[in-house]
Amino acid sequence: MVHRELRSGFNSPIAYIVALFFLLFTSVWFFTIQDFFARDTASLRSYFSIFPFVFIVLIPSLTMRSWAEETRQGTLELMVTLPAREWDLVLGKFIANLILLAIILVGTLPTVAAVLPFGDFDPGPIVSQYVGIFLLGAAGLALGQSISLFTRNQVSAFISTAGVLLLVTIAEGFVRGSAAPLFFQRIMAALSLGFHFEDFAKGIIDSQDLFFFLGVIWLFLFINARTLLLRKWR
């Protein structure tokens, strides 16, 4: 399943287009809009801080094919009748998307390497930032893959996933410090992917944030597997 999904991903021009968009946009943002070279202190925090927002486009582009394309082609019904377990199918698609995401993130290393001579960078925070962005991306992939199972075409899967990611990325920022009740602000923070990434962006690995992302990944993969099982029983 992993090989099949990777081959499909590499054969699709969409994967190359969104990867190029991601790498170009984040670099232009960092060097031009954020004007790295005009700053008094050298930091990669502003570079990694934009990733969650660009992921709102990148992640749905990777996951929209996961199940929606199987539904469109009529192969989903065949897949659920295979002797392979539901978890094998779900993890196969997830791992393939995770590999594609990792390859794209490797493409950011030249940007990071280019700025290292301009400051006294500690490798610890950089590792933390990459761990955080990988976990954030993995959580988004699990979410998007589950949403794809409930849609009938790639466009619907893309729009639905992007909408949910937009909500869980920026909603907490709007209510933080507002007139909203404190308990509501805490609930929004607890559910926000963007909020749990903030410490990673600062170079801090907090166990609560770590377990949050792992929990989100497991939850949506579980939903994905259970939904497939229910379809097999129908």
From TrEMBL:
It comes from the Bacteria. One of its GO terms (molecular function) is ABC-type transporter activity. The chain crosses the membrane at residues 14-32, 44-62, 94-118, 130-151, 157-175, 211-229. It is found in: Cell membrane. Keywords: Cell membrane, Membrane, Transmembrane, Transmembrane helix. Its main location: membrane. InterPro entries: ABC-2_transporter_component. It is a multi-pass membrane protein. GO terms for cellular component: plasma membrane. PANTHER family: MEMBRANE COMPONENT OF ABC TRANSPORTER YHHJ-RELATED (PTHR30294), MULTIDRUG ABC TRANSPORTER PERMEASE YBHS-RELATED (PTHR30294:SF29). This is ABC transporter permease.
